[in-house]
Amino acid sequence: MEKKGQVALVTGASSGIGRETARMLAEKGFQVIVAARRMERLNELAAQVQGIMPIGVDLSDLEDTDRFCQHVSGLSEPVSVLVNNAGYSLRGVLEDVPIKAAARMFQVNVFGLMQVTQACLPGMRRMRSGTIVNVSSMAGKFAFPGSGPYAATKHAVEALTDALRIEVRPFGIRVVAIRPGFIATEFNDVGNKMTGDLLARTDPDYRPVYETSGKGVGKMFVNATVPGPELIANIILEAILSDSPKAVYHAGLFSEEFLGQRSRLDDEGFDQYLSAKTGLNDLKL
Asked: How far apart are CA 250 and CA 231, in angstroms?
């Protein structure tokens, strides 16, 4: 696709996958709007890479998101490529996740994505072209124990992406889902910070659940190499530049294994598989 001078918008661009994607798009000749809360990070990226335009936005704040979307809607040159990358994770069994905290995560991961997409779609429809890339997760197809609310946000992203892909295809707009596995970014650190000390506040009944599943997941990482964000950024770029991108891409540690098992096994079989992998299949309390 022709990209020189086209406008791309990348949310969650202050670090990790979003930052690498924005850099690669700018190097390909796009004018890239980078959006995130941390303006100092965005300004640093803009100083390093030509063609980067930083705009601060807190997608957890409805008013700030509305302001940002009004700005996007009013651009003289419409956004032709949208990468919905912003998102974060909360950890914890369902009983331990405060509803207000879960609602904030849904606002960023789901409703913020919807709002930004709605702001970009009219311009894409007028052009009868455009590409929307929604960064989901392998957790969009299944949930690890202790990640139910986060996985629920990514299940929602998958549903929105599937419906949108069919809705806007007649206008020449392509819609792609990306399902990363484990990737070496700040994502885990942010999730830990947002979650806090679960073991200190959970009911003692749940401590063996956290400890057992933690050990089970830890075993999976022994001698494993976690790829960096460039892996996913390159796939996003491939999808954007392709004349006929696939509906879904996945990559990253364990993505092939877990998504493969999810597609091969029935619900009962996958439940048994994941329970065994996390060590919870034989836990009796």
From this structure: 10
C-alpha dihedral (32, 177, 239, 33), degrees to nearest 10: 0
Catalytic choice (150, 206, 249, 273)? 150
**Phi then psi dihedrals of residue 38, to 5 deg:** -85, 90
| Strands 79-84 vs 130-135: parallel, antiparallel or unpaired | parallel
36 residue type, one letter: A
Residues whose CB is less than 8 angstroms from the CB of residue 190 and which lie 6 or more positions away in sequence, other chains included: 88, 89
Residue 150 bears catalytic tag: yes
Residue 124 C-alpha from the chain's centroid = 22
pLDDT 10s digits, 259-278: 999 999 999 999 999 999 99
What Cα–Cα distance (Å) separates residue 13 from each residue in 32, 96, 271, 277?
A: 10, 30, 35, 33
- Beta bridge partners of residue 56, listed in sequence order: 36
Closest CA relative to residue 84, chosen from 58, 105, 112, 44: 112
Interhelix angle 112-127/148-168, rounded to 10 degrees, is 10
| First vs last C-alpha separation in the chain | 57
User: Which residue segments constitute the domains of the chain, with CATH numbers given?
Assistant: 7-203+226-261 (3.40.50.720)
pTM over 0.85: yes
Name the β-bridge partners of 130: 173
CA pair distance 32, 200, nearest whole angstrom: 43
For residue range 3-34, what is the model confidence (pLDDT) as tens digits?
667 999 999 999 999 999 999 999 999 999 99
Q: Three-state DSSP class for 222?
A: coil
